[in-house]
Amino acid sequence: MEDRIAALQTEAVAAIESATDRKSLDAARVTHLGKSGGITRLSEGMRDVSKDDRPRLGKLLNELRQAVNAALEARELALATESDAAALAALDITLPGTRSETGSIHPLTHLLDKAVGIFRRLGFVLADGPDIETEWHCFDALNTPADHPARNEQDTFYLPDGRLLRTHTSSVQVRVMESQAPPVRIIAPGAAYRRDEVDATHLAQFTQMEGLYVDRQVSVADLKGTLEYFFRELFGPETEIRFRPHFFPFTEPSYEIDIRAQALGGKWMELAGCGMVDPAVFEGICQKRGDRVFDPEEVTGFAFGFGLDRLAMNLIQIPDIRMLVENDLRFLQQFPA
Fold first, then answer.
1. Which of 105, 113, 100 minimizes the C-alpha distance to 337?
2. Which residues pair with 307 in a beta bridge?
3. Contact 227, 257 (CB under 8 A)
4. φ, ψ (nearest 5 deg) of residue 22
5. Are 39 and 5 in contact (CB under 8 A)?
6. Sign of the C-alpha dihedral, residues 75, 78, 82, 83?
7. Residues of 150-176 as b/e, b for ≥16 C-beta within 10 angstroms?
8. CA angle centred on 180, ends 219 and 111, rounded to 5°
9. 3-class SS at 243?
10. What is the three-state SS of 38-85?
11. Angle, CA of 305, 306 and 309, to the nearest 5°
12. For residues 256 and 236, is the Cβ–Cβ distance under 8 A?
């Protein structure tokens, strides 16, 4: 038995070291370590060995396995090294390398980051919510009447179960008020969806930035000061800003905001909607929460919102809003990293 173990070790190691490729190496592995291999057959013969010799021969068998496995690993490494060397031998290191492309930040992402940074300095925090919403969060909680055009299936993407793709991120404001007591000071950037015909100035999915501030004694002066500071930080200190009376079902009074800045070609541009939160919205939130922490007799607040895509479109002076979503490298490479 002892001689058979020594002979098998010599045979196995010699077969492994003479393997010229992975196929012959695998064949040597199966021949000596497989289920019907020589080492397996020797192991099965241990049942006929006397009890006195079994420990010594068992140790020799273990040493045999270790020697064969070590030889296999060494030969496998050698074959891999030889293969790499052969591949590199055909490589012409004098050829010019492949130029690596340097990426850049998408103009919409750049604008969003800048806007978020300004609002953070004013004490606003980021809030998020689901893109698939209920009618209550998207319309009812915002005092939107049942016959409002926005609730029509021609304007909004409805799902079979009655839910819908949010038409604005005001639904995030509602969810924050459901879960948090005043004071609330949040911004909610994110995707919104409307059944618009896609053309040079409209997208079915666009990026919106909305904000909400609720506390005791929040006034129109706070609204005006906040948004004037934001737009002048974004477009420059010489930016002109005007507030025009408007109507939104969830704010009263309500305003449209126009700005005129050199970055926008020096022309007046309608940019955002805003207003003081309608007391009916606060009443709806109180009923939903089951308490009076948003009692309109105790708290006031303002809300605002604007589209980032159209703003980016005007800032970088492009004629078609679709250029922002086409992922055309010829367009994107024009912007600095």
1. 105
2. 208
3. yes
4. -65, -35
5. no
6. positive
7. ebeeeebbeeeeebbbbbbbbbbbbbb
8. 65
9. strand
10. HHHHHHHHHHHCCCCCHHHHHHHHHHHHHHHHHHHHHHHHHHHHHHHH
11. 150
12. no
- Calpha distance 134→163 (Å, rounded): 5
Residues in a beta bridge with 251: 248, 277
Residue 322 vs residues 69, 106, 191: alpha-carbon distances, Å: 62, 14, 15
Using alpha carbons only, what angle is made at residue 244 by residues 320 and 237, rounded to the nearest 5 degrees?
A: 70
Model confidence at 265: pLDDT above 80: no
The 3-state DSSP class for residue 281 equals helix
Contact between 310 and 201 under an 8 Å Cβ cutoff? The reply is yes
The 3-state DSSP class for residue 147 equals coil
| Token pair 């496998």 in the structure block, residue | 76
Q: Which of 234, 232, 220, 237 is nearest to 304 (CA)?
A: 220
Give the separation between CA 57 and CA 62, rounded to whole angstroms: 9
Q: Which two tokens stand for residue 138?
A: 């998207």
Which of the given ranges, 97-106, 152-161, 193-202, 294-303, has the highest pLDDT on average?
A: 294-303
Look-up of token digits 């978020």: 116
Q: For residue 55, give every residue at least 6 positions away whose Cβ sits within 8 Å of its Cβ, in sequence order, or none.
A: none
Q: Which amino acid type is present at position 182? A: P
Task: Tell me the three state secondary structure of residue 2.
Answer: helix
Identify whether the C-beta of residue 173 lies closer than 8 Å to the C-beta of residue 185: no
Dump pLDDT digits (tens) for 191-242: 999 988 888 888 899 999 999 999 999 999 999 999 999 999 988 898 899 9
Q: What is the residue whose two structure tokens read 């490589």?
A: 91
Residue 47 has pLDDT above 70, yes or no: no
**Where residue 35 falls among pLDDT bands split at 50, 70, 90?**
confident
Topology of the domain comprising 107-332: BirA Bifunctional Protein; domain 2 (3.30.930)
